[in-house]
Design goal:
The protein is of the alpha/beta class and about 550 residues long. The protein has two domains: about 290 residues, Rossmann fold (3-Layer(aba) Sandwich), CATH 3.40.50; about 240 residues, Rossmann fold. The protein is built from 18 helices and 23 strands. The strands form five sheets. It has a nine-stranded mixed β-sheet with strand order 13-12-14-15-23-22-21-18-19, with helices on both faces. A seven-stranded parallel β-sheet has the order 5-2-6-1-7-10-11, with helices on both faces. It has a three-stranded mixed β-sheet with strand order 16-17-20. Helix 1 packs across helix 9 and helix 11 crosses helix 12.
Amino acid sequence: MTKVIFITGGVMSGLGKGTVAASIAKILQFRGFAVSMVKCDPYLNVDAGTMNPVEHGENFVCEEIWEFNPARDFKFRIAEVDQDFGTYERFTGQCVHPSHNITSGQIYLSVILKERTGEFLGKTVQIIPHVTDEIKSRLKDILKEGKDFIIVEIGGTVGDIEGMPFLEAVRQLRIELGKENSVLIHVTYVPYLSTIQQLKTKPTQHSLRKLLESGLIPDIIIARSEVELNEDARQKIALFSGLSKESIISAPNLSIIYEIPLAFERQNLGDLLLKKLMLKPKRDPMPGISEWKKLVNMFRSANVEIKIALVGKYTKIVDSYISIIEALKHAGAHNSLKVTPVFVDAERVDEKKLMTFDGILLTPGFGVRAAEGMIQSAKIALEKNIPFLGICFGAQLATVAFARYIMKWEGANSTEIDPNTPYPVVDLLPGQRNVELMGGTMRLGAIKVRIIKNTILYKAYEKELIKERFRHRYHIIKKFADKMTTRGYKVNAYDTDGNIVGFEVEGHPYFVGVQWHPEFKSRPFSPSPVYLSFIGAIKRYRLNFRV
């Protein structure tokens, strides 16, 4: 039978439950188990697609598109999910299906539509049992996939009103599964007061009380803190929770995120989980642990620093571009370089400051705000020979910069920014114009891409046909791209419909734009070819001109 590990969080959000969940998945993989990841998000959005990255972090895009059918005659296409799915994929190396992101919006929509279509046969529809049954039904569908484990992260914080139906569903499901088939892990915060050099467990005690009020008793507590949990703090938490000290796991801040599974291994968390679930490892975990140690040491030994400007619209929080940051670090480590990404607000671009960076990355986004600053940044990279990578919206605006400043097409733009531009080098395709349904023109999920030989991208991928993940509406228009080839603009990738999805600039040290999001498929043990190529070019550029 599939075992279930539920993960809840307490005290405050942002503790890194997603990283904890992914690290637990990794230590189970070390032992030969097949693991599936699930995230329950209490927000009322149906998916993450319409959420501002500044509020909730990046919108991660899955490989597949899920047709969500909340009731008969209703259908939604979902591929955009919570950012934690990026963490899951980077640690486990597995693609996660979008149906594994269960939101309150999906649950309530399903229940309401079923009520409207008469599926409850006149019953009074309530949170318990109808909403909780819907949550359990979704989780049971995932259990049918037959993996050894599913790890279910409950988003938000214990005590939040919107998360209560999920906690109640967990309580019920644990009873149905049986004591030996599930484990509840509570991730909590233990602040360190530097003024008195003490760890304080009182917030954890309050969080545990809230969890107990929900009818849930944790089997393991993972204590997040700035420093390693000392014996005194571990003893206090054990005493209050009624758990053994071995069930109190310390999760201090670490400079390399991929070291967390090793930190858990040092505290025997993997063996503890199997003991509680009455399982034995399917294989010796040491070979997997040894390989992971080599990976972490590669990141640790990369000590030559390069700084890359991430120019964008959503620079107020790090999580807005978390997959890009991680992809840069992956590629850096494999080039023996320590990459330091620096956010540059596209509404406040300083040319002199931008020229001090080793590379410029123009980030994804949507809408008019800050677009001119992003175009200006691409212009600087073009004119000053700074290695440049444009991702999605960034690639589109880099094309605009080339049209304006190399082709001298005054007023060139994307019709997303200026519908009346005389040179619409980026525009909707003709078939998109009559689609009125919101989101109906969005290209989502993994799509096949044809790479042109004798290009930078072909050298990066070493193959002609690839599959990458997309999230966009607007396209680089061929008739303008053809004219720009006379000045060095070179198309290097098409989709299978013949639309332009990648380009480079000849004669420049490195100026590449891609319409897809290569960061979503980058892994610490297998970096994205695009990011490897970009960092490799910066390495050569530094050696030739900077060092």
